[in-house]
Amino acid sequence: MGFVGMIVAAVVVVHAYLWRRLVRASTTPGSRSRRVLTWALVVLAVLMVVTFGGSRLGLGMDVERVVAWPGYLWLAVMFYLFVFGLVMEVPRAVATFVVSRRRRAAEAAAPAERAEEEAAPVDEVVLAGAAAGGGATAHGTATTGMPVAEEAAAGTPAIDRRLFISRTASAVVAAGALATVGYGVSMALGDPVIERVPIRLPRLDPRMSGLRIAVVSDIHLGPLTGRGHTERIVRMINGLEADAVTIVGDLVDGTVAELGRLATPLGSLESRYGAYFVTGNHEYYTAEGPQEWIEELRSLGVRPLRNERVEIRHAGAVLDLAGVNDLNGVPSGDGPDLGKALGGRDANRPVVLMAHQPVQVTQAAAHGVDLQLSGHTHGGQMAPFNLLVPLQQPVVAGLASVPRTGGGDTQVYVTRGAGFWGPPVRVGAPPEITLIELRA
Fold it and tell me: TM segments (predicted)?
């Protein structure tokens, strides 16, 4: 099954669940509200498929920009409707069980009450009604001679308790989903958090202690971002006065022709020893491949590290900064090659490796890397996705270490990324720009 096929299958399953729990359970058959909500779900489901498959369907960036905002926002709302819906299943089931028990108890008691009414003399019933003020009698017969149940039926019936439970649960689910997405949008579109992280490298020359490396990843220039997104990131990085800047993949979601103007501010990056870039998986998703972006970044003064390394000389000491291609380049023969990137170097010098995916740290440890800088995970971006990331990657976010062959550890720092992919929503994983300070 292809990518679009999987998306369609997932969309159908989730929307079917939402219709069953939020529409059918909360509306009456044939009602106008049920028809409107049903068609709304159908339209939103189609919009989501078009949003996800836009580039693969050849719709072009202009069309993608039109559908991306409503499509991706609905994706976020749909996801949290699904999550909150699952959470509400337990209290909904408990409430329904309690109501069912009470209803069965009432139905079991009804025959005895009716028999008692039939056995009571008519005069007693009328007198009891008069004593109560001429209204309903103690035995359930009104002065009109009509049973109370029939009187209620003649007026407006009370809402069914099951329907009341379903509508209450649906309101809680909708309010929770909308509030969560609203918060997530404000986080995703706000300023990235500056994380200042001191990292000790045992092999670092004391003269190099204090070297500062700015790390940014997953900027994701695309249909939902503008030039201001890049300008803000560049401005914030320049404010850190870093010695080197590293862009650890997933810079773009499109071609140079579509997004080149959004990347132009990267030419204003400032650092003592330069700005560097390695490919992420998204650089391989266009038909043109990553090469056009490699050349574009070179023209902006950002040096791509394509399975290669450079020497960073600071205060009379030297550190190797290496970079490898992303794993998604393997099918096209453009994958990572740590042997090429690290071969022939002075093993006594520390080495910092730029590699987009944290999972590459296992190979890095085998090659004696001191520190790996990665992104890719977005920190989960939308909780509880952070609980699923460990199924694919060894680290969700932050600093961790992996034992090296021959002793010592390879440390890996995973940044949450400065942008977002898909929905412009971040919950539990605010955007991040990292300033790493190396210490001996």
Answer: 6-23, 35-52, 72-94, 171-190
